[in-house]
Design a protein that fits this description.
Blueprint lengths: L4 E6 L5 H15 L5 E6 L11 H8 L17 H4 L2 E4 L2 H10 L7 E4 L20 H22 L4
Parallel strand pairs: 1-2, 1-3, 3-4
Helix pairs in contact: 1-2, 1-5, 2-5
This protein binds 4-nitrophenyl phosphate.
Length: about 160
C-alpha cells in the first residue's frame, strides 16, 4: 500500500478522536511507520477549539502534548483523502456511512474492529464523565491504535 493516511472520527473532535490521533501517531512513530494522521468530528459545535482540557491532561500524563490540535468537521473530501477512516463509536460509523460519497475509496471501520476479539465495540464518550473515563478512553484508543499499526504493517 502507498503510505497509509488515517482519519479518526468522533462526535465533537475534542475528546476521543484527538486522543486516538495522538495514540496512533505515537504507536506509528514507535513502529517507524510513516503515516498521515488527522481527526475530525461529525458535529460542528466545537470547530476551531482545542481538545477538552481533560483530554489534554490525559495525553499529557502519557507525555504527549495535544494542545495545538484544533477541532474540525468531517467533510466529503475526507473519503478520498484518507486510506482509512476510523469511527470511535457505532453512531459515528452510521453518520459516516450516510455521508460517504458513492465510490468512496477510504476503508471505513470502527477503531476497535482492528483489535482481535473487539469487533463491533465502541469507545464510550467520556464527555459527561470524569478523569477515570478519560483514562479508560486512552486505554481503548491505545489498544486500537497499536492494533491498527500492526494491520497496516501487514502483521495484524
Ligand atoms: P467526543 O466527545 O465526541 O469524544 O469529542 C464529545 C464532545 C462534545 C460533545 C459530545 C461529545 N458535545 O455534545 O458537545
Amino acid at each position: 500500500m502507498s503510505q497509509p493516511s488515517v482519519l479518526f472520527v468522533c462526535l465533537g473532535n475534542i475528546c476521543r478522536s484527538p486522543l486516538a490521533e495522538a495514540a496512533f501517531r505515537d504507536a506509528a512513530m514507535r513502529a517507524g511507520m510513516a503515516v498521515t494522521v488527522d481527526s475530525a468530528g461529525t458535529g460542528d459545535w466545537h470547530v476551531g477549539q482545542p481538545p477538552d482540557r481533560r483530554a489534554r491532561a490525559e495525553a499529557a500524563s502519557h507525555g504527549i502534548d495535544i494542545s495545538a490540535y484544533r477541532a474540525r468537521q468531517v467533510a466529503a473530501e475526507d473519503f478520498a483523502r484518507f486510506t482509512h477512516i476510523c469511527a470511535l463509536d457505532s453512531a459515528n460509523l452510521a453518520d459516516l456511512r450516510a455521508l460517504a460519497p458513492a465510490g468512496a475509496s477510504a476503508r471505513l471501520a470502527l477503531l476497535l474492529d482492528y483489535v482481535p476479539g473487539q469487533k463491533g465495540t465502541s469507545v464510550p464518550d467520556p464527555y459527561h464523565g470524569g478523569p477515570q473515563d478519560f483514562a479508560e478512553c486512552w486505554r481503548l484508543v491505545s489498544l486500537g491504535a497499536k492494533a491498527l499499526v500492526e494491520v497496516l504493517a501487514g502483521r495484524g
